[in-house]
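agent: user wants the structure for non-specific serine/threonine protein kinase from Hibiscus sabdariffa. delegating to structure tool.
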Amino acid sequence: MENKKVLMQKYEFGNLLGQGNFGKVYYAKSVKTKQSVAIKVMEKEKVRKVGMIDQTKTEISSMSLVKHPNILELYEVLANKNKIYFIMEYADGGELFNEVAKGKLREDMARRYFQQLISAVDFCHSRGVYHRDLKPENLLLDENGTLKVSDFGLSALGVSKYQDGLLHTTCGTPAYVAPEVINQKGYDGAKADIWSCGVILFVLLAGYLPFRDSNLVEMYKKISTADYKFPSWFSPDVTKLLSKILNPNPRSRISIAKMKTNPWFKKGLKSNSLQKTSEQDSPRADPPVVFGPEANPAALEIKNQTDDLPKLNAFDIISLSSGLDLSGLFTETKEKKEVQFTSVHSASAITSKLKDIAQQLKFKIKTEAGGLLKIEKSNKGRKAALAIDMEIFEITPSLYLVQVKKSSGDSLEYEKMLQEEIRPALKDIVLSWQ
Ligand code: AMP
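agent: tool returned. relaying tokens verbatim.
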């Protein structure tokens, strides 16, 4: 039991505050100073299993890179043989998400949170740290209602952090992700964060997401084309600003520097207050890392590795977002014999590849319409003809999802053909199989 335990004679554990992507978070008190803290406990084994050792080191190093009034502070890191403990600033006011869940916020409240969010994000960007996973769940409030951005430690993680299905455990939706991130085009972390801030501002003011659809493909389309509507209660000034933030083209999307001169954004801000928060902070050393008796210090060597990150692609989102209802993605009920893959080739290239394979395997094309290819192989024996449906879905203009499924015929024959002939023949166009 973690409760009521004293950690290394330093922190007395209290209640469970929440379950995050990387482990449980507990309330605790410093034995010496009685200061309230939050402790995130990670099982080393779990971290190792999902290949997150490096990411954890990154979490430590990027959390320690940033010290700002609107960023949750990391005080120290403790470790013993089995666990890693992150001792963090305690945010008493819970998640900002809870406020939004009660209903939309007043414009001045939303603006205040947004200004604090931008201040934190601007500060991090100026130090080369990008969050990449900004959403209301990562925004906590302290006892004074001041916004604290959490999980900045995850900022430097690329797609690998999704290997454990982490996306679905957070909010189950890619609704905050910028179109260029979904499109898998090389992207600018700063502009991608600004997009997410725009989605957050929209949610604060509207009480709901700008891009919503039970069908993921439709949702991606809406994100890619910035297809959303402002509710009637949004003021003209905020709609003007949001249109500049939710611009699907990252190059012409507004920068933070420009945003700081925007009249709606500036309202109520003391002049230069954004500037000051960054400048006032003194550079900070890495937090102390303390090891328990059996810990191996080398296991926590801190290394900054924000470069060369693998990019998140839409298939990762789809395949890992199991919290989402994917049923709307497909028109027919999912059968066991259905497989899917993604491809970055054009729809016509995929279609011609599928037709080539059909021809090689002596199938006849029965239907070809709107991305659907129905092929059939007449069977001279007693068995029903083997028929396969292949359907291409556009996720974004540069990413397609292809579904391959037996519609009739012998399952064994189909399975053998799929594994031994169809899959190998598709290898040139497949980005990833589900
Ligand atoms: P995380 O692993 O950071 O996503 O945290 C999981 C949950 O624990 C959050 O959604 C919060 O409800 C809670 N939590 C995390 N960090 C803190 C903190 N520093 N202070 C208070 N609650 C926290």
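agent: one observation worth passing along. The mean pLDDT is 74.
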